């Protein structure tokens, strides 16, 4: 139990005060984009800026239509020098939302690129390799496919013993 608490605390420290965050459940497959935003804010002299970004956010035009699980979060500080801190305050990978706190250093402003990805639900209508696409002409399990060799209603199936047109 003590080890688990220490590991959780160390993971929290890894994201606390970092200018960049990369947290992905699977480094090979980020998933599909849920929220992508660039945040640019100029700071006056001696001013420290704070911004809280929440994804998904119902106030923005996004493709959020269901409660999908976040699989990857990337926060990139675009300032050449260390521009500030990015911290995941709530949610995150494995949750349905993430709340990211951005804080600039004094007089430096904010310049962040944020990408949040969600699980691939397999129902992308534009994906030609989608196995669940009902209009896929190469789907071997499509009951309406006239060339399906396993179609029990195929009148010209030569291997069908009940087929009067078969070649047996």
Automatic annotation (TrEMBL):
Residues 1-18 form the signal peptide. Residues 117-168 are annotated as: Disordered. Keywords: Signal. This is Uncharacterized protein.
């Amino acid at each position: 139990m003590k080890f688990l608490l220490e590991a959780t605390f160390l993971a929290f420290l890894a994201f606390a005060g970092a200018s960049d965050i990369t947290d992905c459940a699977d480094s090979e497959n980020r998933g599909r984009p849920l929220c992508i935003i660039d945040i640019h804010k100029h700071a006056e002299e001696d001013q420290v800026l704070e911004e809280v970004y929440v994804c998904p956010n119902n106030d923005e035009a996004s493709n959020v239509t269901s409660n999908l699980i976040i699989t990857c979060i990337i926060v990139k500080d675009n300032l050449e020098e260390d521009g500030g801190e990015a911290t995941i305050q709530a949610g995150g990978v494995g949750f349905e939302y993430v709340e990211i706190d951005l804080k600039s250093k004094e007089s430096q402003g904010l310049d962040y690129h944020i990408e949040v990805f969600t699980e691939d639900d397999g129902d992308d209508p534009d994906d030609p390799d989608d196995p669940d696409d009902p209009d896929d002409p190469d789907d071997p399990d499509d009951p309406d496919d006239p060339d399906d060799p396993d179609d029990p209603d195929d009148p010209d199936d030569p291997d069908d013993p009940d087929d009067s047109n078969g070649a047996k």
